[in-house]
Amino acid sequence: MDNLLIRNARVPGHGPEPCDVALAGGRIVVIGESLSATGQTVIDAGGGMLTPSFVELHCHLDATLTAGSPRPNRTGTLWEGIALWSEIKPSLDEGSVYRRARKTLLWMLSHGVTHVRSHVDICDPSLIALRALLRLREELRGTIELQLVAFPQEGLFAYADGEALMQEAIHLGVDCLGGIPHYEMTREDGVRSVERVMDLAREYDRLVDIHCDEIDDEQSRFVEVMAAQTVRLGMGGRVTASHLTASHGYNGAYANKLLGLMKRAGLHVVTNPLDNSVLQGRFDGYPTRRGHARIKEMLQAGLNVACGHDSVMDPWYPMGDGDPLKAAFVLMHYAQIIGADERPWLFRMLTDMPAAAFGLERHAVAEGAPADLILWDVPSEDEALRRLPPRRAVIRNGAVVAERDGAAMRVLGETLDVSPPA
Ligand code: FE2
What we know:
By secondary structure, the protein is an alpha/beta fold. It has two domains: about 5-50 and about 365-405, Urease, subunit C, domain 1 (Roll); about 55-360, TIM Barrel, CATH 3.20.20.140. Helix content is about 35%, strand content about 20%. The protein contains 13 helices and 18 strands. It has helices spanning about 80-90, 95-110, 130-140, 160-170, 185-205, 225-235, 250-265, 275-280, 295-300, 325-335, 345-350, 350-360, 380-385; strands at about 5-10, 20-25, 25-30, 40-45, 50, 55-60, 115-120, 145-150, 175, 205-210, 240-245, 270, 305, 375, 395, 400-405, 410, 415. An eight-stranded parallel sheet has the order 6-7-8-9-10-11-12-13, sandwiched between helices. A six-stranded antiparallel sheet has the order 5-14-15-16-17-18, with helices on one face. Strands 3-2-1-4 form a four-stranded mixed sheet, with no helix packed on it. α2 crosses α3 (about 130-140), α5 (about 185-205) packs parallel to α6 and α6 packs parallel to α7 (about 250-265). The chain is globular and about 65 Å long. It starts with a strand and ends in a 5-residue tail after the last strand. The model has no long low-confidence stretch (mean pLDDT about 95).
């Protein structure tokens, strides 16, 4: 493990002047001015910003890089995406899932992502995708930390053997249990699925991350069940609700009650602006809603909210390159997080807030914190959001794991082209 000294770096929250940051033993040991170099490798940041690394809390690595195969999603709708994925699933093999997921993870690492939570569809009797991703999780440990969620895409109860496959996934070693209550056959089945998933998570000591209310139906109210169960089972801090797009249709009185309950439960939330901006609102006339949770209100209420990338070139979203900054850029517009006092939320939604849901200790540029960092050429978060620049270097456990080299990034010995299009 290298000992690094990063000179002349701007650290958000540490004043406007650049400072020096010394790393040793995989941690940040000193932040100060004009630190003396004693045998370390020195990097001159030249006034560029140093931030914590990104934590990607919501993606689907089993489906990544399948867009266009066996044919494109011609309508761009959620339903055609689901139908396409059902066609792709029987032809999956462990090698192709492994290669596609690894490629996307290297893209993510080049953008500064060091921790990733991926949902994995377990509605497949062979659990091929899960086996491939479990292998990748172990191989990349120490470089990218991967948390895997057992995700019953076609329903825990709506899919035959869904519950048995969830049990098998638990025994194979998933980190997290998922669900999709709004996709179950009835409201009652949806409630039961949340209760069953959370009971299993408590029994087997796993985290929970449920696709919840990802629909425009304002009657979809499963997040209240998640929050109530979190309170009853004492699982605060271990439960994440993903998407919550139905919340844009809730009336004000219900939304107000719900936010209070979510806060009491200590629920984490993930919003996924890239996918949901294009998949939802398909039954609206004009004005057309966008698939958007009440993010600003949740932040103002003190909830822990992460911004996820979600799909990277799959049947639901043919775009994306795994850069969380682009998701935050879209969210900035979509959620109107543009006020000077509000914009700092955007970087926090990619760093310390998802880190808390991931279960990480302190994820900050601070003495004693793990040295998982991004070095930028730009001097501030605002400039990063305005220009969306390639990263200069990514540091994991105190060592450089990705580094820009001209128009390319060197990532784990591989070269990725990050140049802007001609
Ligand atoms: Fe998702």
